[in-house]
Every structure is written in C-alpha cells, then in structure tokens.
Amino acid sequence: MKRHLLLLIGLVLAAAVTIADAATMVPPGNRNAVQPDIPGASSRRTQATNTTFQAKYRKVYALLQNDAELRGKIRKVAAEYGIDPIHIVGAIVGEHTYNVDAYDRLQTYYVKAMSYLSSKLTFAYEGEDVSDFVQRPEFRKCDGMGDSYDLWECREQVWNQAFRGKTVGGTSFPNDRFGATFFQPYYAGQTFGLGQLNPLTALQMSDLVHKVSGLPKLDVNDPNTVYKTIMDPDLTLPYVAATIRKSIDAYRGIAGFDISHNPGLTATLYNVGNPEQRAYALKAENDKRRAAGQPEKLPEENYYGWLVNDKLDELKALFHG
Questions:
Q1: Hey, which residues does 167 pair with through a beta bridge?
Q2: Mean of the pLDDT values across residues 282-299?
Q3: In the predicted model, is pLDDT for residue 1 greater than 60?
Q4: Model confidence over 225-244: pLDDT tens digits?
Q5: Which of 95, 96, 115, 156 is the 20 to 30 A CA-CA neighbour of 62?
Q6: What is the mean pLDDT of residues 267-283?
Q7: Cβ atoms 206, 246 nearer than 8 A
Q8: What distance in Å separates the CA atoms of residue 266 and residue 259, rounded to the nearest whole number?
Q9: Which string of b and e fits 45-55 if b means at least 16 CB within 10 Å?
Q10: Could you tell me if 235 and 215 are in contact, meaning their C-beta atoms sit under 8 angstroms apart?
C-alpha cells in the first residue's frame, strides 16, 4: 500500500513539473501583416553608402550561399547549442541588411580579427576604465554573481538605474546604453564581425560559450582579445548561438512561450537585446490580460525579425536546397 502511495505521489509530482514546464508554442510566421517601421538611423546609414536594404540582403545571402564551409560551421555550432541553424542565419542576415554591409568573402573577417591584436584598445569612459568603474559602491549588489551573464546583466541594470543620464560624483554620464558608453572605443553604436556582436554581449555570454564550446573565458581587462573574438568567425559563431539560446530559454522559462520555431522572434531579440527583461515585461502584461479575461498576447517581431520570417523559405534553402 505504501509503495503504491509513493508511486502515486511521484506521478502527481511529475505531472506538476510537466505542467509547470509547458510553454505555448509560437507558430512560425509574422504576427504583423506589413513590416514594422525601420528606424531612421538604419535608413540613413544605408543611404549614406549608396545602397539599398534589398542590395544588402542579397550581398549577405550570396556570402552564405557561396560558402559551403561557412554553412557547415553554422550547422555544427547550432547543433552544439540545440538550436536550428536558421536562427543563426536569421541573426546574420538581419544584422547585415539593416546594420552594415557584409564582406564579400569570409576571409576578410579573419584578417580584420587579427588586426585588433595590434592596436591598443580600452573599455573606458572619460578616462575611467570600466573595470574600475564597476568597483563603485553602486555595483556592490552584483558582487558574488558567478555567471558572466548574471554579472554583466546586473551591472547593466545598475548603470541604467544609477548612472544613465545622471551626474554622479561630478561626472556627467550620457543617456545611452552601457555597451555604447563603455564598450565601443571607436564610436558609439558600433558592432563587429559576422554576427555584429558588441563587446558587452560577448562578455555576458562568455561562461556559456566556455561551458558548451570550450573557448577561453573573456576578460574585460583584455579588450583586444574580446574584439578579436567578435571578428573571428570561428570564435564569434558560438557567441551568436549562445545569445540566441539565452533568448529561447528566457522566453520559455519566464514568459511561458516557446519561440524556437520562429526565427523572426529570435532575430528580433538578437537585434534589441535584454531578452530576460523583455520576457518579464511580456509575462506581466499577460498576467494582467488573463486577470481581465483577455486572450494572452503572443511575442511579436520587429522590422528586423519580420524580414527574416518573410524570407524564411529562401533562407531555409541554404541548408535544405
């Protein structure tokens, strides 16, 4: 009798875990019938280089189509992180369509990667290195966080709450992102490499990439190696995959949505960043909607993710011919 009771309890607990782990699968395709507005900065950047979004899309598509070795690398890395390679392709295509033009050959990225080892880079603002900046007492609550994602996410939140757009200790800080202020020594907003990553994202993903891919952990005190990692396709692809994996896990675990079948959504989150904060915001909105007897709101793609979903058949053909 006791054994049957224990078995029954076990089955109930297993069922409870399954229910708790259940997530609403977001179907493929766009929720918006027409493409959301493209930011003016993206349009101006594209016009300034005498090209078009369509031409930039065709250029990055040609890079992927003509390089079987690159597609093989993408397929391998995607498998390591348990995601469909189309998610990585979507991130790359979106970045090079709306951010900067792709290089014609993959080899150019390797050459650029090596060039960063010969220049002296710093992560600093107004002469204060970020490694000194995060020793300020405002960041004390982040001490002891072992995972690189949690650590830098916490520091980014402290920046937003205590420093962004404020004057602290006689220093006036810009109303801009943490990554743009401290981590882009060339000019604010600059991202690099095949995945157009910024250094802060790379630092956040360092522990996950070390765990899954075995790459050395990144050190904020070694900006040159951070930039080389971003520029080198063999090193940056795991970081692209880890960033996407983090978004998928955040939306499942926090907001209760499985976005793994919608590359436009993972591309959107790759573009806008902060997947956990966005997942919490969506959960809060849906909690209110359910309390009011309204249907839950599905995650939606932005202009960048909309393109990926719109071109999905063509992008899938890169791998399934």
A1: 172
A2: 97
A3: no
A4: 998 898 888 999 999 999 99
A5: 115
A6: 96
A7: no
A8: 7
A9: bbeeeeeeeee
A10: yes
Token couple for 222? 């070694």
Residue among 209, 277, 269, 207 at smallest CA distance from 239: 209
User: If DSSP codes are grouped into helix, strand and coil, which group holds residue 125?
Assistant: strand
SS3 77: helix
Residue 194: both structure tokens together: 């095949």
H/E element holding 168? Answer: strand 167-168
Residue 197, φ and ψ in degrees, nearest 5? -80, 155
Rounded to two decimals, the pTM is: 0.87
Closest CA to 99 of 45, 62, 51: 45
In this predicted model, what pLDDT tens digit does every residue of 159-199 receive, in sequence order? 999 999 999 989 999 999 999 899 875 543 455 678 888 89
Strands (E), 158-214: 167-168, 171-172
Q: Which residues contact 73 (CB under 8 A, 6 or more apart)?
A: 233, 234, 237
Phi (first) and psi of residue 262, to 5 degrees: -130, 90
SS3 31: coil
**Whole-number Å distance between alpha carbons of 306 and 176:** 26
Domains of the chain: 22-123+183-320 (1.10.530)
Q: Computed from CA positions of residues 159, 160, 162, 166, in that sequence, does the dihedral angle turn out positive or negative? A: positive
Indicate the pLDDT class of residue 12, thresholds 50, 70 and 90.
very low
